[in-house]
Amino acid sequence: MFRWLKHYISVTNCFARLAIQRQMEYPTFLFGWIAGNFLQWFGGLWLIQTIMSRFGDLAGWKAEQVIFIYSLSVISHGLVVIFFLQTWVIGQMIIVGEFDRILLRPMDSFFLFIVRNINFVGITDAIPGIIIFFHACSLVKFHWSFVNIVNIGLILIGATLIRTALYMLVGSISFWKINRDALSVLMMHFQQQATSYPISIYPYSLQVIFTFLIPIGFISFYPASQFFGIGTILDIPFNFSFATLFMGVIFFFLASYVFTTGLKKYESVGN
Amino acid sequence: MIVVKNLSKEFLVIKKSPGFSGALKSIFFPDKKIVHAIDNVSFSINRGEIVGYIGPNGAGKSTTVKILCGILHPTSGTILINGLDPQKKRQEIVRNIGTVFGQRTQLYWDIRLGESFELLRRIYRIDNETYNHNLSVMNEMLQINELIDIPVRQLSLGQRMRGDLVAAFLHSPKIIFLDEPTIGLDIQGKKSIRKFIKNINRLNKATIILTTHDLDDVEELCNRLIIINKGRIVEDGGLKQIINKITPYRLLIVDAEKIPVNFKTENCEIVKSELNRIHLKFDKNKITASQLIAQISLQIKIVDLSVKESDIEDVIENIYGQSV
Ligand SMILES: Nc1ncnc2c1ncn2[C@@H]1O[C@H](COP(=O)(O)OP(=O)(O)OP(=O)(O)O)[C@@H](O)[C@H]1O
Ligand SMILES: [Mg+2]
Prior knowledge:
The complex is a heterodimer of chains A (271) and B (324). With 271 residues, chain A is mainly alpha-helical. Chain A has helices at residues 2-24, 27-55, 63-84, 90-95, 98-103, 109-115, 123-140, 146-171, 173-176, 181-195, 204-213, 221-228, 240-269; strands at residues 57-58, 61-62. Chain B is an alpha/beta fold and 324 residues long. Chain B is globular and about 75 Å long. The complex binds adenosine-5'-triphosphate and magnesium ion. The site of magnesium ion (MG) has 3 residues of chain B, from helix 2.
């Protein structure tokens, strides 16, 4: 068991090192991404402030609280880009035969799929997110207790897993139908739209869907509602940071199961 | 060592009709077609053999290789590699397999070649001693050290192929699948790669299955050939044996002072007749060259002559020719 773990960790480290080196080969790209992403995320912040200054509040949420939601959304998006970007391009990977390469190695194929790319460019998403988060924290007078810091950590992990799981579920369609990566782009826009604002602005039925079926409510909305003590359709007696983590883990496992089933299908059919 | 029995692989492909109406039609009434990429194939290969697996485009060579290394699952049939089923024990099988797909590199495009090797070292858990030993042995044959610090995308095709070969052999695999390893290389490149394959086979007692369209590869490397066409094995045997069976002919080329217009001989076929040269094809099981020469010299005055054996090229021409 220990040897097994050591083996997998050593391979993960090596992939990470290769990923850094690979991205160092094209430093100019990085500047493009910094410029583009900073513009996009701070632009989004500006948009929220403008809208909110006109309407006062949104379904009972004040401007700074919406900004808090938005920042959780941006950070978790950044984490997905860093660690799981490959879940957006499964169709492409099939076409270029990447899974042949993965299947030729004597290791778990889901593991190799997950660690094969660490995309450090994603920090250009995460950093604006973190800046906006601190900005929101000072606006809402966030209480920096140890428990709250741990909660934020759990929420971000859970949120990243939920997002990744959704990308994997959509991406795995490409195992059955030829390249459907366009759906991943759609998924990205959807996640970004739906997690930047309180989901309580949507009709009840949509809120239910965003809670249980496509659980994006847990990415930013429910955790924030708990911090601010704002009532939602989901009144559960326990900590929402655990709920987010719980949903993340459940959906990640579900998605990895679908992915693995898809890969089996790939093995039996070819690309 | 490798035992394949009644292996078949079918692909379901959807035929696309041209044009917009065709595209619409294929959405609502998809025209599904089954392609029998491999059709009831059986063979077994012993340890240390170099087997040429050859056939025309689309014959099913790459598909067979993919099934044997566990990437694809067969539609029916059984495979045992060292007694194990690659479908069920993929990870175990793949540990002892090395592959080169000439059409597609397995190296990491944007980083120096050495890093790809390092990654493989960790994936296969190759201990330092074996790793360094293998690298230095292969460096002697393929001069890999001079390439090791160059990003793969900057390597020429031949250099990249050397990299791919080294990558495939780092973990001392017992079975190696080479799918067109000499594709697109110049003569020098081909030669060094052939030499390498030969040496590795001798040193490691590795079993090598080679698919190629280059018949010089086959002649130089393979002691055995499996010829596949349209998913079926058409020949399986030694190189000489197959030549003898499919094309038991020799060509006798005779230069003479003058070839009479009504020249005729028995037991052979006139392939080409020029003013003072004539090409005769004869079945070497029916008549010997000297008998034929004696027979001809009665009619014409021979100035010079040469005998050409039929080779693998003629065999392939013969077999592929039947398929069209
Ligand atoms: N994933 C796939 N889906 C559908 N059909 C496929 C697939 N892969 C291969 N085929 C079909 O199976 C047949 C055999 O293909 P294969 O790639 O094994 O040929 P090959 O002998 O390697 O040819 P080549 O010399 O051109 O490399 C072809 O008719 C091909 O169109
Ligand atoms: Mg092929």
